Amino acid sequence: MASSYGATMDSPSAERNKGPIWEVLDPKFRSLLSESSSSGGLVLEVAAGTGVHAEYFVSNLSNLIDDEFAEKDVGKWKWVATDPDSLSRGSIDARFNRISSVSTVETHPSLSLSLDENGIMEEGTSLPWDGGVDMIICINMIHISPWGATKGLMKLANEKLRPGGILFCYGPYKESGTAVDSNLRFDASLKSRNSSWGVRDLETVVEVATENGLDFVEKVSMPANNLSVFYRKHG
Description:
There is one protein chain. The protein is α/β, with parallel strands linked by helices and 235 residues long. 39% of the residues lie in helices and 24% in strands. It is built from six helices and nine strands. The strands form two sheets. Strands 3-2-1-6-7-9-8 form a seven-stranded mixed sheet, with helices on both faces. β4 and β5 form a beta hairpin. 39% of the residues are buried.
């Protein structure tokens, strides 16, 4: 269900990492735009939170299209942000509203979306773009949700991404069963708050992605011991 404009909420951590994250997304969007036809493109953001990332990324994507792809007909690009929390969705919509008049990228009213191992949990949320999404973005969800949500994310990516489409995930991970001390402490803290949460093993996440028709492409080390991880759908 679409939300109405609400109060704009802040996220200090999102404000800190939005710049470094865009730096790794920028070349992926350049590649997508270079391949884009006049039919345009679609980005789906899962667990968008307060919309800090969404507003920043939409603004940057719009500038990229206007400044460097003005001579190419890339069609209309659309950004759809989702979150299960109604206050967060109100904040997303308020942020989108304040950039709508200057953005080349079309923004969609935010949608309620929760995931479990079977995919989308909300009966009233319809994402009609099977095989038509160019990129799915999911930031800081995998460790602050039950494991079933990660399975649902990979299932969603398999269903919604076009062949060659990109899934981007950001957050802390363990590798080979371990991590830096700060991430191990964070893992313990998460599990003390909710036993179904925790810093996941990257290898296990990649395995679930592979089971859902996604190829692991690359990982990029980020500030504060996080990783940017890219997958691509077969095809």
